[in-house]
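Changelog entry: the Small ribosomal subunit protein eS31 domain-containing protein record was regenerated in this release. Current contents:
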Amino acid sequence: YYKVDKDGGIERLRRECPADTCGAGVFMAAMADRQYCGRCHLTYVFDKQ
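Regenerated structure tokens:
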């Protein structure tokens, strides 16, 4: 869920769940048309445009 570059910098590859019940360290699953939190079931659906 992280990418480390040559300089030692860290980049998150997935979004962390913003819900108060989850917080930092709980990542959202990345599907083609949505992002989903398996812990609190928060879902972001993207438009297909």
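The chain has a mean pLDDT of 92.
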